What we know:
This protein is mainly beta. 8% of the residues lie in helices and 45% in strands. It contains one helix and 18 strands. The strands form four sheets. Strands 2, 4, 5, 7, 8 and 9 form a six-stranded mixed sheet that branches. Strands 11, 13, 14, 16, 17 and 18 form a six-stranded mixed sheet that branches. It has a three-stranded antiparallel sheet with strand order 1-3-6, with no helix packed on it. The protein is flat.
Amino acid sequence: MKKPYLTFLIFISLIVISCGGKDDGGGGNVDPPDPINPPTSTTLVSPANNTECLDGENVEFRWNSSQYTDTYTINVKNLLTQSVISQSTTSTTITIQLERGQPYSWYIVSSSNSSSDTAESEKWKFYLKGDQTSNYAPFPADLIKPTAEATVAPGSIEFEWSGSDVDTGDTLTYDLYLSTSNPPTTRIQSNITSTKVTQNISDLGVYYWKIITKDNSGSNSDSGVSKFTVAN
């Protein structure tokens, strides 16, 4: 009678072992890792947009803190020479020495040690005061459309840009230069009062364009050249 009883005990033991499941070592479920939040973009404070900066050659840049951000990288561009200064900091302020009497743009890139994502702020412009002047040249126009390296269909093509000036009382007009050579030397529309025009282009190929911004005091600025391709 002992043998059937021993067999029954072995059978029960096997059932208990098989129902025990895998031992996770912790006696319960493991919580999932916390989500990684990408950094958010900051808001710029000073130098204010489209203003004349009066702080001499040592310019203090300030911006607000942004969420989930460990490092801020400031990019300051001389709009005449196209040279760029980039510096990183964990603070929300930095002082940079710049050449006086020049127009600049600047923006901030927010970065996190926990994420490969970054976030860019708006881009602001300012003039760093130089010798005393009663009028500043307009800021170089920002070319918007066609975007750089874009491919567009032949026909009526829209050109769009943005312009601004420290001298708020100035009236701005624009000349559009367009050709297949770089830099473009053919002025195809002049004294444009809006920041958007259309131009018919039927020939396929690579084109270069730029905008000359003029104010009513005789000053002007060059946007620099952008390239696009006309193709079917």
